[in-house]
Design brief:
The chain has 289 residues and is of the alpha+beta class. Helices cover 19% and strands 27% of the residues.
Amino acid sequence: MNLIKEPFFQDKTCVLITMHGKEKAILPLFQGFEGLNFIVAPTLNTDILGTFSGEVIRVQNPLETALLKAKLAINHVDADYAIANEGSFGPHPSIYFIPADHEWIVLLELKTGRFWHTQHISTNTNFSSIVPKNWIEVIEFLRSIDFPNHGIIIKLESEINDNNNQIFKDLDSKLEIEEIFNKYENIEGYRLSFETDMRAHRNPTRMQVIAETAEKLKRKLQATCPTCNYPGFDIVEVEKGLPCSICESPTRLIHKVLYACMNCHHQEWSGNPEGLIVSDPGFCEYCNP
């Protein structure tokens, strides 16, 4: 067994892969973290893996894409670790009528290929789009997404030839937007649509969710294996069936969880992560069918 000496990350270097200013959300949380030194690599082109505006279609899922971003550092940056983020937007997985921001953050050990990751789903997002019928609808949309504090992307899409599509972004004034709207709103064979710019540097709301995801990663790294002290001693399996406080029947709530170490493979079960011993009867299929 390889016993890890603490602190694990002392005097190591981690590169943050971002083109869109994510260091503002991530680095403050890791300031002084176990002696780990951070650098930023804004020149590595992560857009080749997909863009929110649609010029490049993302092929991999968000976790795979975040890993690929981190791996861009292998041949380009002298570092021990790479950290990268990827997000996706759409209906909340369980509350379908509410939009959600689903963020992933990965910390990759470049030499071994081992990685730690976390994910976070938040309803705190202004993700939205519109095909406006008039300028009044545009103004209302801009107000609803908090423009210009949040960016906007305008797409002019051809109904015949995708090669004729145009994308307008990095717009900072209503005047610029109005000029585009007046120029293209009634062109036959084209559709003019407006959507929120979900790139981190143009969307402070998303930046906050990225920070929340990074905080989860930090807490995960701080949870070390009780046997070998390796970081990332985390839940790998959950068992439902927390007993009802009235009838003691198993409910759908988590009863216990299994923690595991990726280094020495030590495992141990623990109780409900929120410290619950019994369930509220409201979650019981017998007391509250």
